[in-house]
Amino acid sequence: MKLVTGTVATVSGVLFALSMASANPSLLPKHEGYPMKNSGSPVTGQPTANDPGQSDAHGESTLMKSADSIKHAQQNLMKTDNARITTVQGANQLPTVQGPQIKIAPPVTSATKIAGDRKIE
Predict the structure, then answer these.
(1) Cβ neighbours, 10 Å, residue 40
(2) Pseudo-torsion of CA 86, 90, 92, 96, nearest 10°?
(3) pLDDT per residue over 40-86, tens digit each?
(4) Which residues fall within 8 angstroms of residue 51, CB to CB, at 6 or more apart?
(5) Of all residues in the chain, what percent carry a pLDDT higher than 70?
(6) Which of 29, 36, 68, 87 has the most beta carbons within 10 angstroms of its beta carbon?
């Protein structure tokens, strides 16, 4: 039983590692880059940034491009039951809707008073 569990865990781990290695980076959204200088290391002079040729991501255009890049993931959910509501009454009250107006009577309409001659046993 331990051999089967170990084999399944090993095969699963290898498949997971292969799926991570075969990920397609071209599917990631493109952006202008991060704010950086094109400066290098003080010792060797090599560029210290991952993409030193990219421009700084500042300004209104960068914000608009980042907002446009997630439009495909935006959801516009609409509850169809809310289309029938004409007026909202407030807390603990049912709203007025299109269709039949159903009034719910309270469970008790009047209180009962026990006179002195009546005994509760």
Answers:
(1) 13
(2) -10
(3) 777 777 776 666 666 656 667 777 877 777 777 777 788 887 888 88
(4) 33, 36
(5) 68
(6) 36
Compute the residue count for the chain.
121
Phi-psi region of 80 (alpha: psi -120 to 50; beta: other; left: phi over 0): alpha
Name which of 54, 52, 57 is nearest 39 in CA terms: 52
33 confidence band (pLDDT: 50, 70, 90) = low
pLDDT confidence of residue 12: 94
Instruction: Give the Cβ contact number of residue 49 at 10 Å.
Output: 14
Residue 99 structure tokens: 């269709």
State the pLDDT at residue 120: 66
Cα-Cα end-to-end distance for the chain: 70
Q: Do residues 57 and 31 touch, judged by C-beta distance below 8 A?
A: yes
d(CA 65, CA 62): 5
